[in-house]
Amino acid sequence: MSDIPEKTIERLSEYRRTLLSCHNQGITHIFSHVLAGIHGITAVQVRRDLMLIGFSSDTKKGYDVEVLIDFISNILDGPNVMHVGVIGMGHLGQALTKYFNSRKSKLRIVASFDVDEEKVGQIIDDIPCFDMAHFEHQVQKLDIKIVILSCPATIASDLVVPIINAGIKGVLNFTSMPLNFPRGIFLENYDITTVLEKVAYFVKEAEEGVDVQN
Length: 214
Description:
The chain is of the alpha/beta class. It has two domains: 6-75, Winged helix-like DNA-binding domain superfamily/Winged helix DNA-binding domain (Arc Repressor Mutant, subunit A, Orthogonal Bundle); 82-194, Rossmann fold (3-Layer(aba) Sandwich), CATH 3.40.50.720. Helices cover 47% and strands 18% of the residues. The chain contains nine helices and nine strands. Strand 3 (82-87), helix 5 (91-101) and strand 4 (107-114) form a beta-alpha-beta unit. The protein starts with 5 loop residues before the first helix and ends with a helix. 22% of the residues are buried.
């Protein structure tokens, strides 16, 4: 399963969230074209993604929602809860912690790290906040595999070496500073400003198009 494309992994996560919502509503089966319509893709893409992970089903009634949830979960999740740390416990860090730890998930934020003396040593959103000076020790003690960077962009590059030294395996970078890590550390750079500006651009284009037509 290591050959599954990144985009397919993203869509599988999205499918699971939709399927969980359907399950909570009492929906027992769903057709590929319905799932595709919810996510703005084609039914062919949905079927191709599920074929890639080896899922097959009698689709006369549609996919069995509960069975498909379990199948995707076996692909995406490990056998145990994976521990996550947050670097930077400002508004974004706290929002991310509340969101992830309120969900039933195999991902669990167990610690945060900061340099702000008012935050260090405190319990914020039910998790301890440690000084960055103790980062490597706490990562190993708490078996943290992934870190989320929600710190100021100005210090993001200074975190690369500590993250490598601590043995972190995955990084989700929410800062506007693109980072690079050696092979063996999976990195996802997510620049909120860039994404929002992209959305704003297409909104502007759509509005300008309406003005031209009028």
